[in-house]
Structures are given as structure tokens and as C-alpha cells.
Amino acid sequence: MPVALVAIGYMLRKRRNAHANAVIAVGGAMFALAYMAQQKAAPAAQQPPAPAGSDTAAPIAALQGQTTGFWYQAPDGRFLRLPNIVRRVSVANA
Known about the structure:
By secondary structure, the protein is mainly alpha-helical. It contains 2 helices and 2 strands. Helix 1 (2-14) packs antiparallel against helix 2 (20-46).
């Protein structure tokens, strides 16, 4: 479609039509938008699918058998798993 509009605009320009430049510009803009949409769709198609049966929405799925610890969200947005460290310190030693 964009190539057809550019071709029609070129034919109108040969006939010295006043709207030829506008038709060429619309065809070029449609071509640029279609190219950008194709570039954005290419990386999404190349990503491998998630393995079946795993929960990718929650960080708890990364535990895989480890039952101790807790998740901490760092200020930059990453989730870190920290182990439970239980140290009982007596008041006299503190």
C-alpha cells in the first residue's frame, strides 16, 4: 500500500498535480510506520517461549526446593533472595 501511494504520487507529479507531494508524503510516512512496526515485532518473535509448568510471574518460582529465606526488593527493582539467619545474641554479649 505505501509503495502504491508513492507510485501514484510520482505519476501525479509527472502530470504536475498540486496534491502529488502530499500523496508521496503519506506513502512515505506509511512506509516508515510499517518498517518500525516490523522492527519491533522481530525481537518479540525471536524470544524463546517459557518452559511449560514454571511460574514466571513470581520470584518465588526461583526457589526450586529451598524453603528457607525471604525475598527482598532492592531499590533498583531487582528481587534478591536472602537467607534466614537466626542468631540469638544475649544482651550481655551485645
